[in-house]
Amino acid sequence: MEKKIKKSTKKISNNISHARAYITATFNNTIVTLTDNLGNTLAWGSAGAAGFKGARKSTPYAATTVVEKIARSARDIGVSSIEIYLKGPGPGRDSSIRAFKAAGLNISMIADVTPIPHNGPRANKRRRT
C-alpha cells in the first residue's frame, strides 16, 4: 500500500492593500519578509536566496535586488502601501527603503526595531597594566 502525500499550499488572497515589510539587515545578509496585518507571511526573500554568495550578500545592491523581487510579488497580491520595520545595522538598510519607494509602493511608516540593550551582559574584567 502506497500512501499519497498531499502537499498543502496556502492560498494567498489578492485583496490585501496594506502590508508590513520586516527588513533584517545584518553584516552578512539582508532578509526581507512581507506580511499582512495579522503577521501571516505573504512573501520573503534574502540576498542569499537571490543568488548572491559570500561578501556580495552584504552589499546594498544585493538588498536592492531582494526588495525589487519582494515588491514585484507584493504588486501581484495587490499591495499598494506598506509599513517598514528595520532591524539591524547592516549596509542594506537605506538601499532597501529606497528600493521600496522606487518600486512604487506607498510607505506609510518606517520604524527602527533594532534591539538595544539597556544594561547588557556583564563587562569583561579590567585589563591589568
Automatic annotation (TrEMBL):
Listed InterPro entries: Ribosomal_uS11 (IPR001971), Ribosomal_uS11_bac-type (IPR019981), Ribosomal_uS11_CS (IPR018102), Ribosomal_uS11_sf (IPR036967)
Recorded GO MF terms: rRNA binding; structural constituent of ribosome
One example of a Gene Ontology biological process annotation: translation
One Pfam entry name: Ribosomal_S11
Keywords on record: Ribonucleoprotein, Ribosomal protein, RNA-binding, rRNA-binding
A cellular-component GO term for this protein: ribonucleoprotein complex
Function: Located on the platform of the 30S subunit, it bridges several disparate RNA helices of the 16S rRNA. Forms part of the Shine-Dalgarno cleft in the 70S ribosome.
Similarity field: Belongs to the universal ribosomal protein uS11 family.
Subunit and partners: Part of the 30S ribosomal subunit. Interacts with proteins S7 and S18. Binds to IF-3.
Name of the featured protein: Small ribosomal subunit protein uS11
Gene field: rpsK
